[in-house]
Amino acid sequence: MSDLMMLQSFHFLRPYWLLLIFPLLVIIKSFYQRNNNLRVWRKVMSAEILQHLTVNAGKNNKLTPKNVTVIFVLLACIVAAGPSRKQQPSPFSEDKSPLIIALDVSESMNQSDIQPSRLLRAKQKIIELLALRGDANTALIAYAGSAHTVIPITSDSDMIRHFLNPLNNKLMPKSGKLPQATLPLAQALLQTTQVPGTLLILGDGATPETARQFNRFFKNHPHQLIVWAIGKPPLQ
């Protein structure tokens, strides 16, 4: 089965080089016909007699300079075409849709109803998501009572991981919880792209006003919203 998969993925990186084989074959054939001194005699003389009257006529020497040249030219065309068993991703299939990650770092995210804490669990989820996305375009926003761009849209996931780790409520200039404060920042980031994007909110709470503002924003923009709720609901 593995051999079959390898055969299916076999392709040429530059297949247009193979087109040179056809004119080269025509040229080589014309050289053979022009240099064949016996061609005229074969038309008027018996093949048995011609064989006995010519030197080396009965021998079949395949390693002549002409044959070696033909083999070399054919191999050169194949090598130039770039045979490969590794399928290259098409640049047209590249995912250019940006993802804006908005992380709630307010004081309530320090609760430990989800171990080790809501904030650390949210960070773990972001790291897992970055690993799945690879080098896709991603940005990071942190919010509490205000929102701030941590990393603008980038394909460097390692940079996002580096700045993600120290985020906490002590770094925020304003306490509270306003997820809707991320909307102007997300809009400014997404305006730099040519395709619709996604805003991912990771937090543990919102208000009816938050819902109204998010509903109004996404009605007027082609982007999508994803919410990952962090924390356990209170017992009734």
Question: Which helices and strands occur, and which strands form pairs?
Answer:
Elements: H1 2-9, E1 11-12, H2 21-35, H3 39-44, H4 47-53, H5 65-80, E2 83-84, E3 99-104, H6 118-133, E4 138-143, E5 147-154, H7 157-164, H8 182-190, E6 198-203, H9 208-219, E7 224-229
Parallel strand pairs: 3-4, 3-6, 6-7
Antiparallel strand pairs: 1-2, 4-5
Helix pairs in contact: 2-5
Residue share in helices? 40-55%
What percent of residues are in strands? 15-25%
Structural class: alpha/beta
Element-by-element helix/strand order: HEHHHHEEHEEHHEHE
* CATH-derived topology of the largest domain: Rossmann fold
> What is the oligomeric state here?
single chain
How many domains, as an integer? 2
Mind summarizing the main beta sheet? 5 strands, mixed
Calculate Rg over CA atoms. 35 Å
Q: Output the CATH homologous superfamily of the largest domain.
A: von Willebrand factor, type A domain
Q: Helical segment tally?
A: 9
Enumerate the spans where pLDDT stays under 50 for 5 or more consecutive residues: none
Tell me the strand order in the biggest sheet.
5-4-3-6-7
Report what the structure shows:
The chain is of the alpha/beta class and about 240 residues long. The protein folds into 2 domains: about 1-85, no CATH class; about 90-230, von Willebrand factor, type A domain (Rossmann fold, 3-Layer(aba) Sandwich), CATH 3.40.50. The protein has helices spanning about 1-10, 20-35, 40-45, 45-55, 65-80, 120-135, 155-165, 180-190, 210-220, and strands at about 10, 85, 100-105, 140-145, 145-155, 200-205, 225-230. The strands form 2 sheets. Strands 5-4-3-6-7 form a 5-stranded mixed beta sheet, sandwiched between helices. Strands 1-2 form a two-stranded antiparallel sheet. It starts with a helix and ends in a 7-residue tail after the last strand. The model has no long low-confidence stretch (mean pLDDT about 80). This is VWA domain-containing protein. It holds the Pfam family VWA_2.
